[in-house]
Amino acid sequence: MDFVADQLFDGRPIRILAVLDAHTREALSIVPRVTFQAFDLVQELGRLARERGRPKALKVNNGPEFAGRMLDQWAHLNGVEIDFSRPGKPTDNAHIEAFNSRLRAECLNASWFLSLADARERLDAWRREYNEERPHGSLQNLTPRAFAEQAHQAQEVA
Predict the structure, then answer these.
(1) 29/121 Cα distance (integer angstroms)
(2) 139: which of 47, 78, 147, 150 fits an S-S bond (Cβ 3.0–4.6 Å)?
(3) By C-alpha distance, which of 31, 30, 18 is closest to 59?
(4) Is 0.85 surpassed by the pTM of this model?
(5) Helix and strand tally (H, E) in the chain?
(6) Is the dihedral of CA 143, 97, 102, 56 positive or negative?
(7) CATH number of the domain where residue 97 is located
(8) What's the total number of domains in the chain?
(9) Are the C-beta atoms of 60 and 84 separated by less than 8 Å?
(10) Rounded to the nearest 5 degrees, what angle is found at the Cα of 63, between the Cα atoms of 92 and 41?
(11) How far apart are CA 102 and CA 45, in angstroms?
């Protein structure tokens, strides 16, 4: 989980929350907003937990949204461990760094967002294509969605 900065066509800045499943490489959420506060982050995590179940751990950097009491309280109440990366060590969270690089090169640099709604629409379309149409070498050339389904079926059998 990390934030990526970008801007709308008129120069207004936006922040994009990217949530990635480190096991399946699925992009669970890509949410653009003008600003993100801890409440917004916790709200999105709550939505994802209701849809997919609670994670065992969250890998995050030391940004103020991640280091605050609200996320800490949410994690404690939900039995989720928060794993902070070391300052200045992007390799501690290499999966999200690689994902953010791909997001920037393929979507953000290639798009001129006219509004926040336009950014939401384009980012969600890119997320669906990333999850459902692109095979990943690290996933035995399966798409993240297909790999997740395969892992879920294996878990049910076990």
Answers:
(1) 12
(2) 147
(3) 18
(4) yes
(5) 6, 5
(6) positive
(7) 3.30.420.10
(8) 1
(9) yes
(10) 105
(11) 23
Q: In what order do the strands lie in the sheet with 2-7?
A: 2-7, 13-20, 27-33
Amino acid sitting at position 60: V
Which residue is it, tokens 């980012």?
A: 123
> In which residue are the tokens 């709550």 written?
46
Tokens encoding 5? 């900065």
Give the CA distances from residue 29 to residues 41, 46, 75, 77, in Å, rounded to whole numbers and listed in that order: 11, 12, 18, 22
Q: Which amino acid is at 132?
A: E
The domain of 138 spans 2-157
pLDDT tens string 41-96 = 999 999 999 999 999 999 998 888 888 899 999 999 999 999 998 888 877 888 88
Q: How many other C-beta atoms lie within 10 A of the C-beta of residue 82?
A: 16
Residue 156 near residue 148, CB atoms below 8 Å = no
Please state, as a whole number, how many other Cβ atoms lie within 10 Å of the Cβ of residue 115: 12
